[in-house]
Amino acid sequence: MSAMITLKNVSKWYGDFQVLTDCSTAVEKGEVVVVCGPSGSGKSTLIKTVNALEPFQKGEIIVDGLSVGDPKTDLPKLRARIGMVFQNFELFPHLSITDNLTIAQEKVLGRSKDEARQKGLHYLDRVGLKAHAAKFPGQLSGGQQQRVAIARALSMDPIAMLFDEPTSALDPEMVNEVLDVMVELAHEGMTMMCVTHEMGFARKVANRVIFMDKGAIVEDCAKEEFFGDIKARSERAQHFLSKILQH
């Protein structure tokens, strides 16, 4: 089975500082991979290299047969095929929810206004927010804005979704409404890479867990192994797990 996303020995520097060191992993079609680890371990940088939001200096990334680092690769087109959901929603505050959902479909995919609107509202309904189509982002709660951001990404018919700490900017009571949508997507077979601290989510839907520390992938194993046999984990992962699993 060929992987949807493959990273081979990916390294990245900011000046003299190495943020990623020889990172290799593969994500199969329909697989849900959770990337976790302490702050500053390179998690967000890693998933941003997948759709070239972060350039990398060494190694290779292949997404659905396309080389991300190849100068000939059409990056806007590639990004259109990989949904990205950020920590801070990244919605256009001056556009209505409907326009937020349709603008990229029209500009990047060349869809007609009607088709883009129909598709956008379909996904808005799916995340439970159809009644808010005419509102502006500022009129919605953080959790609702993040669900709009997910609907926007899905409107592009992505082959995979990347989530960069999608719940970390939310109030605790809003976290579950976003995770519920993500769980549903996972159950439907969406290929997903999620940077998250939500270990309950990881236990529920992840196929694999990648644990990073200091820019390197320290663990890359099935979730049953990661959470089940803690003693077999690296010292750094054990320390991380002991901190987050005692709550």
> How many strand elements?
10
Shape: globular
Residue stretches low in confidence (pLDDT < 50, at least 5 long) are none
Beta-strand share of residues: 15-25%
Please outline the major beta sheet: 6 strands, mixed
Question: How would you sum up this structure, described in words?
Answer:
The chain is α/β, with parallel strands linked by helices and 247 residues long. The protein has a domain at 5-89 and 160-241: P-loop containing nucleotide triphosphate hydrolases (Rossmann fold, 3-Layer(aba) Sandwich), CATH 3.40.50.300. It has helices at 43-50, 75-81, 97-109, 113-126, 142-154, 172-187, 199-205, 223-228, 235-245; strands at residues 5-14, 17-27, 32-36, 58-63, 66-67, 82-85, 160-164, 192-195, 208-213, 216-222. The strands form two sheets. A six-stranded mixed sheet has the order 6-7-8-3-9-10, sandwiched between helices. Helix 3 (97-109) crosses helix 4 (113-126), helix 3 (97-109) runs parallel beside helix 5 and helix 4 (113-126) crosses helix 5. The longest helix has 16 residues, at 172-187. The chain is globular, with a radius of gyration of 18 Å. The termini are far apart.
